[in-house]
Amino acid sequence: MSDDAHAMTRGTETTEALDPAPVPAAGGPGDHQAARRAAWVAPFVAVSMFLAALNLRPAIGSLGALLEEVRDGLHMSGSVAGVLTSVPPLCFAVFGFAAPRLARRYGPGAIVCAGLAAVTAGLLIRPFVPSTVPFLLASALALAGIAVSNVLMPVIVKRYFPDRVGTMTGLYSMALSLGTAGSAAAAVPLAHALGGWRSGLAAWGVLAAVALVPWLVLVRDRSGYGEKAAGKEAGGASAGPARDVLPSLLRSRTAWSLAVFFGLQATGAYITMGWMSQRFRDAGVSAGTAGVLLAVIMVMGVPLAFVIPGLATRLSHQGPIVVVLCVCGLVAIGGLYAAPVGGAWVWAVLLGVSNCSFPLALTMIGMRSSSGQGVVRLSAFAQCTGYLISIPGPLLVGVLYQHSGGWTWPLALMGGLLVPQMVVGWFAGRDRTIEREAGVGD
């Protein structure tokens, strides 16, 4: 097995080791005290998760809406702006690998708390730096915090809500979409109200600080729900048989189809978040309206994040859903080229539908393995590889935008990427599992 495959397996073992230990049965002398703690811990964690999720996308969404002001204020070229919009997937891939190991040592709650602290610090620092390089570094700090929180939030769900994983994951996903849409819509009005883009961006750091407070309480909790203790208790859990039974996913066509599909849909999503507001503004739409249009694109993920996974599980082949979503994207991109102002709201809705390939990708990852360990390995491989694949896209858009002086070539790139996304998504949606593909069961 290659070094990459060994690294992927180690990350999987670490994630599995974070599964929570069961709460002791009733009957001990501390039962009443434990019951009182349980009565407040569960709803407190739910609120904490919701607040955290709301703050895991404004670092990206608010910057996309104010990208023109930031570029002018920092004298940033289009190519450098492209680098800036490529930083999120890079941080998600790099720091996502580190999160499980850190959580095993310190506890997932402590690392989520540290992640939110990094988000707060990065968002408060970056608007007031004098040049591009420290702005990029402060952004990377915030995105590193987002990355570890992204990876570990499902662990928190499983720890505190083992019998309500679907419900709480839905709540978390909805909060992510609301945070993305809200930051895109409010960024420009907030900047105007506070006197400039610097104060407007810094305001999101204040909101992140509010979300940090309940996690400080959870980390200090020394009851049976303490996260560090939970990590230690689970640290000796067996990684299960998947490591021995499944060969390297580097040789799996299904795994690679999912990874490339995930990477291409992520590419489109980050191009949209980083550049679409600029596209509308260049066409003559006001800054405030462009922000609202970006919010419309993002908010489409709120209802569809619930609808698409349910529909996908009812079909033996998810390829037709992939085709519908990609066709919506192609129509939207064609409209953005031909009539960006006249049909702006229609294109925003269609682009928002197309960007809902993310929940579909996550659903297909769960359906392409017949074992829990296999799902974790497949998820780690597809997401981390996919985020690495997505890095060049926003950068390329910045280069094309700067050197072509318009949107013909950037839009052509966006439309061109949807074609291979449709193809690999069709293959990823076939009714098969990585176990069956490897000839080891199913």
How would you describe this protein?
The protein is mostly helical. The protein contains 21 helices and no strands. The protein has helices at residues 3-16, 31-54, 58-65, 67-74, 78-106, 108-125, 132-160, 165-194, 197-220, 227-234, 242-245, 253-282, 287-299, 301-314, 319-338, 344-354, 357-367, 372-390, 392-404, 408-428, 434-438. Helix 12 packs antiparallel against helix 20 and helix 15 (319-338) packs antiparallel against helix 20 (408-428). The longest helix has 30 residues, at 165-194. The chain is globular, with a radius of gyration of 22 Å.
In short:
The chain is an all-alpha fold.
Please specify the SSE layout and strand pairing.
Elements: H1 3-16, H2 31-54, H3 58-65, H4 67-74, H5 78-106, H6 108-125, H7 132-160, H8 165-194, H9 197-220, H10 227-234, H11 242-245, H12 253-282, H13 287-299, H14 301-314, H15 319-338, H16 344-354, H17 357-367, H18 372-390, H19 392-404, H20 408-428, H21 434-438
Helix count equals 21
How much of the residues is beta strand, in percent? under 5%
Spans with pLDDT under 50 lasting ≥5 residues? 1-26, 222-244
Please trace the helix and strand order, writing H or E for each element. Answer: HHHHHHHHHHHHHHHHHHHHH
Q: Label the structural class.
A: mainly alpha
Termini separation comes to 22 Å
Shape: globular
Give Rg in angstroms.
22 Å
Entry keywords:
21 helices, 0% strand, disordered N terminus, mainly alpha, globular, 442 residues
